[in-house]
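ugh ok fine here u go
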Amino acid sequence: MRKRNKWATIILLFIFVTAGLAQTEDIQQLFRQGNALFSKGNYQQAIEVYQKIVDEGYESGELYYNLGNAYFKINQLGRARLFYERALRLMPDDEALRENLLILQTRLLDKIEKPPEFFLTVWWKNLLQLLPMNALAWLVVALFWFSVLSLSFHLYWKKQRKQQKGRALVIISLSLLFFASVLLTDKAYRFENEKYGVILKPTVTVYSEPRAESTEIFVIHEGLKVKILRKNNDWFEIKLEDGKTGWLPEKSLEII
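structure:
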């Protein structure tokens, strides 16, 4: 009986692995097909192929980047911005992506001027954007073990009457661990609690309350990135980079 169960488990595992590999190959084939269509200038068809991959639950920086490029080619700036921003979360240091995003922003109707920030705040935000979540997590783990090793050396050097050298190493390692941990905690908090969206409608009116009968405050346009503060039924309260806030219908944007 145990033998039969063992072979059944092996067979099932083989089936799952084979099916997974076959599905991965199908996805790669679709991605290559989309790239070929894009190269030929068939941007709408390329979008449809790339979207099939997204609908299967797969995501990657390259996939979102190519989708953004395809939408940009057919002048759908809202969706182009949406996928560029999604790609930026997965590959924040990609220069070509950042350049394309800057080019897209020059073509948007809304030019929101961001108020000046304290230089340390700007530096901290840039550092958060530069380091992906998984890289920060691995850095914290590495620094934790480095701190443990430093403490071990400190205890050893203490016996050898070299306390000053060991103490300095422990202080440095713990300081680096604390700094990296704060970075990781802040990034995780922002990832879980800060939501952004991209306006997909050509023109959207922003209201003072979550109802169309309330006062119209201002108008924004396709492609603008906004911060989502909260949701009330089918309405989002949003905030612009210049500090303006208001309510708009949920269908006006898509969350990044």
